[in-house]
Design brief:
The complex is a heterodimer of chains A (113) and B (117). Chain A has strands at 3-6, 11-14, 19-21, 23-26, 32-38, 45-50, 56-59, 62-65, 75-77, 86-93, 101-103, 107-112. Chain A has 113 residues and is an all-beta fold. Chain A starts with a strand and ends with a strand. In chain A, 39% of the residues are buried. Chain B is 0% helix and 54% strand. Chain B has strands at 4-7, 10-13, 19-25, 30-38, 44-51, 57-58, 67-73, 76-81, 90-98, 107-108, 112-116. In chain B, a hairpin with a 5-residue loop joins strand 4 (30-38) and strand 5. The chains are: A mainly beta (113), B mainly beta (117). Chain A binds chain B through residues 4, 32, 34, 36, 38, 41-46, 89, 93, 98-106, and chain B through 4, 32, 34, 41-44, 46, 49, 93, 95, 97, 102-111.
């Protein structure tokens, strides 16, 4: 079945460092891909999304490119801030059942000043 | 906008009792709400999809008689864990899709941590 694999955390960085959180997926069709972020004590929030191959989603300085050839959707940010500390979830929507989101295990990011 | 609340945020109960968790969309109407379960260091697993005014659709392996879902209005869905046991201890998260949106546009609640003693 469809699945999402993302790197285990925690990822610990100093402020202004470059961030990459890897995400790869397995899907039989052509899924839409998402990154969600969960700040402490809050619900998951959509950070960015891409709906087809080569699309780049971007928001709040974060970017991810839908790479069909490598089945990847890695999250990047050029300069992280302490306020970016959160848990990041990669997800896909099942192309054969558009009401389902399939999530990765989440990666905790800790940014220190 | 698009805020989803859950109540309670955490609950501790004795084995054999039932626990009700509420999920509310505060500033929009939600035709569809979703219930997820999350184990430590694991991904969110969809338990069921509920549509206002109709029976919930449960995922394979989820006991519908144990996890009762009611979606009585466009802003409220409830999950009742009946005869809870320690293995039901988990983090339960709901989400809601605004009326008229695509299903993968979901807004999430902050979650409810259930501990069964």
């Amino acid at each position: 079945g469809d699945s999402v694999t993302q790197m285990e955390g925690p990822v610990t960085l100093s402020e202004e460092a470059f961030l990459t959180i890897n995400c790869t997926y397995t899907a039989t069709g052509y899924p839409s891909l998402f990154w969600y972020v969960q700040y402490p004590g809050e619900g998951l929030q959509l950070l960015l999304k891409a709906t087809k191959a080569d699309d780049k989603g971007s928001n709040k300085g974060f970017e991810a490119t839908y790479r069909k050839e490598t089945t990847s959707f890695h999250l990047e940010k050029g300069s992280v801030q302490v306020s970016d500390s959160a848990v990041y979830f990669c997800a896909l929507s099942d192309p054969y059942n558009t009401d389902k989101l399939i999530f990765g295990t989440g990666t905790r990011l800790q940014v220190f000043p | 906008g698009a805020v989803v609340s859950q109540h309670p945020s955490w609950v501790i109960c004795k084995s054999g009792t039932s626990v009700k968790i509420e999920c509310r969309s505060l500033d929009f109407q939600a035709t569809t709400m979703f219930w997820y379960r999350q184990f430590p260091k694991q991904s969110l697993m969809l338990m069921a999809t509920s549509n206002e005014g109709s029976k919930a659709t449960y995922e394979q392996g989820v006991e519908k008689d144990k996890f009762l879902i009611n979606h009585a209005s466009l802003t409220l869905s409830t999950l009742t864990v009946t005869s809870a046991h320690p293995e039901d201890s988990s983090f339960y998260i709901c989400s809601a899709s605004p009326q008229g949106s695509s299903y993968n546009e979901q807004f999430f609640g902050p979650g409810t941590r259930l501990t069964v003693l």
